[in-house]
Amino acid sequence: MKLSTESRGFRITPEKAVKFIKVSVYLTCMWPPQGDESKISFRLRKYLSVFLSFGLFFPLLFSIVIYLDDMLIILKSAICMTALANYVAKVVIVTRYHREFEKFRFVLNEFILKASDSSKVVFQKYVDKFWKFQFFMVFCYYIGATGIIVGPLVLPQKFPTDAVYPFSVDNPVVAGIIYAHQGFAAYLCAAGMVLDGQAALFLWYLNAKFDILVSEINRVAKREDLCWYIRQHQEILAFADELIPPIRALAFTTISVTKILMISSGFFLISDESLLVKLQFVMVAISSTFNTFLYSWAADDLMNISGAAMSSEIFNVFSRHSLKMKKMCLFIIHRAQKPIVINIPGLLATLSSEYYASFLSAAFSCFATIRAVVNS
């Protein structure tokens, strides 16, 4: 008989999942200051991280200008610049929506502490569903960043990147500072990508709330119960209306960056670079698809649970009630015909499993085109 995760003595609870994701996104300054950290030191840490990102961005840009005849250096610098731009963009989005994210954090923590046992079981189901992939994604990004940092130990290069500085870097102290700076920037880039795991967690929480609401349909036996049910539905929709804009901004940034990273990394797969260099950017190409999958997975589930699934369950249950109650429930059924989706008309297609499949198909077609052009 197959043992459950809990029976083997190891289980990722919602509390552990939140703590793990909180630690993994620490460098993005998404969570408000905790413990003894003051708001001033929190802001200084955030601004310093952004300043250090720009401190590497411009030397990388300078390297592109200096090595215009070396396509591989241009691509490597462009990939690093894109990852830094992603981090800065994510910090800007988090800062712009800091009140909303603080509210989401508070609501999620309140739910974990005060939810009923049946509600916790539903949310646990979602945690069991996503935590392994999310842990793997975080592991890959930080291991990938570490691989880039230790690259100079086994590769014929002095620093992790090809950044060019307007001063001499031969002094050991200066070289050590630059190496530490580039290493820290690599972890900032990893944190910028891992931040999408936090956004996905909020989406999974929203999915769980809809799932809980669907499971409570059978509790409705009279008009008062139905009024309570409609209010619960409206509260979840109101939460969704606040959650979707910042999630949409993060998803658009991530997917835009992912496309650039995949195309740029594709050149390394068909280049004459060493195997170690290729491995670094193969990890970049593969891991960059994780974020798009994470958003598409959670968004597809949300679209289903807030639309067809809810409409079907409500219709099946309320068809047995009086005509007056049927008329009341038409409001929910009508709203369920417009599921909650994540998109930006003209910029970002509706995220779903179909979108992710088309995204991968387009990526492979792009790689094939690049290979054909290079070989010709």
Automatic annotation (TrEMBL):
Highest taxon of the lineage: Eukaryota
Listed transmembrane segments: 47-67, 73-95, 135-155, 184-206, 249-270, 276-297
GO CC annotation terms, alphabetical: plasma membrane
Protein location: Cell membrane
InterPro entries (UniProt xref): 7tm6_olfct_rcpt
GO-annotated biological processes: signal transduction
Membrane topology: Multi-pass membrane protein
Keyword set includes Signal: no
Ranges in a coiled coil: none
Keywords (A to Z) from UniProt: Cell membrane, Membrane, Olfaction, Receptor, Sensory transduction, Transducer, Transmembrane, Transmembrane helix
Entry GO MF terms: odorant binding; olfactory receptor activity
Record family assignment: Belongs to the insect chemoreceptor superfamily. Heteromeric odorant receptor channel (TC 1.A.69) family.
Name of the protein: Odorant receptor
